[in-house]
Design brief:
The complex is a heterodimer of chains A (320) and B (323). Chain A is built from 13 helices and 12 strands. With 320 residues, chain A is an alpha/beta fold. Chain A has a domain of 176 residues: Rossmann fold. By secondary structure, chain B is of the alpha/beta class. Chain B is built from 11 helices and 12 strands. In chain B, the strands form 2 sheets. In chain B, strands 6-7-8-3-9-10-12-11 form an 8-stranded mixed β-sheet, sandwiched between helices. Chain B has a 4-stranded antiparallel β-sheet with strand order 2-1-4-5, covered by helices on one side. In chain B, helix 5 runs parallel beside helix 6. Classes of the chains: A alpha/beta (320), B alpha/beta (323). At the A-B interface, helix 7, helix 8, helix 9 and helix 11 of A face helix 5, helix 6, helix 7, helix 8 and helix 9 of B.
């Protein structure tokens, strides 16, 4: 049985009293101890879907339909009190901008201790000791000294390490990492990704890794799910997806990536612009940019077809 | 071949106060930077955040004053603040910035945004000829001429960046300074803008300074590359040379860290990444360098030729040679 099973999730924003879907009919399973990468551009619904799982949706957004089963609990039906036991303890989340996620007027240690004592019955002394151990675990040198420092004394990469320490403080079953390295430099990015991967393998935790970077997803994920316009366009085991991408959007994205190895005359770019969040087209949301689009694509939304573990939403694959 | 931009021994120091009335403490952000941008070439400045690449652009554009050293644009000193000289420089050199959302005044239409530089420089005073020019300009960056009456909020990030590029091209400059022009854009749009920059570069014989932290992007667009680390240029060579034979350990680390499909995760860099501004002696990269030896922590490396047309500042590479 999978650790987390999301079924037909639909999240809508209310704009001018009208519901505007931002996540449409999203289903996936997350097995224990695996990494799922959710890849998408801004407005694809990748972050909103994660927030909906933890009941953290911003005002104006609501779950319209769907179910998310985690350890026999229906996440989307839980009340605030029940959610509180899930958040942090069982599903933890780290965000894109680590500096903005930490309280600037509390030391790093105080924030860690607060988290630890809120969920576990530890004495102050034990909690501080635990905080130092956690900082050491995420690779912060001189942890006994640095635990008393404030977030502004830490670099971006160090802040993200603190966030990871905080997320791991309660040994969650699932870690949701929302673009954890987008605000960081490439060399620091490699460190943080490696750290997440090591901790994940060590503690058999599952990770939902949200990113816009396909190359990064290829390096960390077991399974990759590609979102576009709030819809799952393609999902497959990582090896399979990068070897045989089936959806024109995935293919286009992979081809358009610049590489350090080669220097082509032109990058094969995808024409057009990604859809604005909530803009609803009748047919496939990618049709206006797709080289293979037919009238059918523009009028009718293709279903998600399954071929083994490889799922794709494209009329070309339905016909086959 | 004439140099469009020539920078010699440029230093830039910011003053930071610990508290409001406190004494200033100087923070060097550019140290002894020298580089040349020849005609019709794209020079890539690559480095991590805080390495001084954006400050270098600001000095070049006259937004910041150099602390010492000379910066010549078309042979003219950028510290020359007389209005005639400034105007001349603005005409020759224009900029495109990272964030297309904050670079465009939300209350101006595309027509107003694009005509402002023309009005300032007294170009196309005739209304019909200006309108024709603006339409041509907009089409040349891949936008429909019907967009002239629209406001920035009606456009997506990629389209806004195209408007920014059009505005920079309005004066038909010889030099374009592009500071991370694609890093704020969606992945599926980045390739479009990179292609556009490459097209206008060859169509207009532009020289370009292209700032980026992404080696893959630099590989595609740049002819020459200068790698910066903590305010210094640590390696400079033609792009082909640099990518086939990177010499500086920092360049190698950066190259290895670029995520690529089908390549395993890069090995971690040494973890000491704390505040390094206090480190005085030796190579600035030594605390993070896997190959650092005793000498690296004592002796400041000299930036010099390690191979023909390939410059590098690393003690290990130039060791044994006479100073």
């Amino acid at each position: 049985m999978p650790l987390l099973q999301v079924e037909n999730l639909q999240v809508t924003f209310t704009v001018d009293k009208k519901p505007v879907p931002v996540v449409r009919d999203l289903s996936y399973t997350l097995p224990a101890g695996k990494v799922l990468a959710v890849v998408g551009e801004s407005g694809s619904g990748k972050t909103i879907h994660a927030l909906s799982l933890l009941g953290l949706l911003p005002p104006g957004a609501s779950v319209r339909r769907g179910d998310a089963v985690f350890q026999r609990k229906h996440l989307l039906a839980l009340n605030e009190n029940q959610l509180r036991t899930v958040r942090g303890q069982q599903i933890a989340m780290i965000f894109q901008d680590p500096a903005a996620s930490l309280n600037p007027v509390l030391t790093v240690g105080e924030q860690l201790v607060e988290t630890l004592r809120a969920h576990r019955s530890l004495s102050k002394k034990e909690a501080w000791k635990e905080a130092i151990t956690l900082l050491e675990k995420v690779g912060i040198a001189q942890a006994e000294k640095r635990v008393h420092e404030y977030p502004f004394q830490f670099s971006g990469g160090m802040c993200q390490r603190v966030m990871i320490a905080m997320a791991l403080a309660l040994s969650p079953d699932i870690l949701i990492a929302d673009e954890p390295t987008t605000a960081l430099d490439v060399t620091i990015q490699a460190q943080i990704i490696r750290l997440i991967k090591e901790l994940q393998q060590h503690s058999q935790m599952s990770v939902i890794f949200i990113t816009h970077n396909l190359a990064l997803a290829s390096q960390v994920a077991d399974t990759v799910l590609v979102l576009y316009g709030g819809l799952c366009m393609e999902s497959a085991p990582a090896d399979e997806l990068f070897l045989r991408p089936l959806h024109p959007y995935t293919q286009g994205l992979l081809e358009s990536l610049a590489s350090v190895q080669t220097r082509p005359e032109r990058l094969p770019a995808i024409a057009g612009q990604p859809p604005v969040a909530g803009e609803i087209l009748l047919g496939c949301p990618f049709a206006p940019r797709c080289a293979y689009a037919t009238d059918k694509c523009r009028q009718e939304l293709p279903p998600l077809t399954k071929n083994g573990a490889h799922e794709v939403r494209c009329w070309r694959e339905v016909v086959k | 071949m004439t140099a469009r931009v020539e920078i010699k021994n440029l230093y830039k120091t910011y003053t930071r106060r610990k508290w409001f009335f406190g004494a200033g403490e100087s923070v060097p952000v550019l140290k002894d930077v020298s580089l040349t941008l020849p005609e019709n070439r794209v020079l890539g400045l690559v480095g991590e955040s805080g390495c001084g690449k954006s400050t270098l652009c600001k000095v070049l554009l006259g937004i910041e004053e150099p602390t010492s050293g000379t910066v010549l644009v078309n042979g003219q000193d950028v510290t020359d603040k007389s209005s005639g000289a400034r105007k001349q420089r603005c005409r020759a050199m224009q900029a495109v910035f990272q964030d297309p959302y904050s670079s465009l005044d939300p209350r101006m239409t595309v027509r107003q945004l694009l005509s402002e530089p023309l009005t300032i420089h007294g170009l196309y005073p005739n209304k019909t000829s200006r309108e024709t020019f603006l339409k041509e300009l907009l089409t040349s960056v891949g936008l429909s001429e019907s967009y002239l009456g629209r406001y920035p909020h009606e456009f997506s990030g990629g389209q806004r960046q195209r408007i920014c590029i059009a505005r920079a091209l309005a004066l038909d400059p010889q030099i374009l300074v592009a500071d991370e022009p694609v890093s704020a854009l969606d992945v599926s749009v980045q390739a479009q803008i990179l292609n556009l920059l490459r097209d206008i570069k060859s169509a207009r014989k532009l020289s370009m300074i292209f700032v980026t932290h992404d080696f893959a992007v630099a590989r595609f667009l740049c002819d020459d590359i200068a790698v910066m680390y903590q305010g210094r240029i640590v390696e400079a060579a033609s792009a082909d040379e640099l990518f086939s034979r990177p010499l500086h350990p920092y360049t190698k680390t950066l190259l290895a860290a670029v995520p690529q499909v089908g390549r395993p995760l890069a090995a971690s860099l040494a973890q000491t990444v704390g505040d390094v501004s206090g480190v005085s002696a030796g190579c600035a990269f030594a605390p993070r360098c896997a190959q650092a030896a005793q000498l690296c922590r004592q002796q400041e490396p000299i930036f010099k030729a390690a191979a023909p047309d390939h410059f590098c500042a690393c003690v290990q590479l130039t060791q044994g040679e006479t100073k």
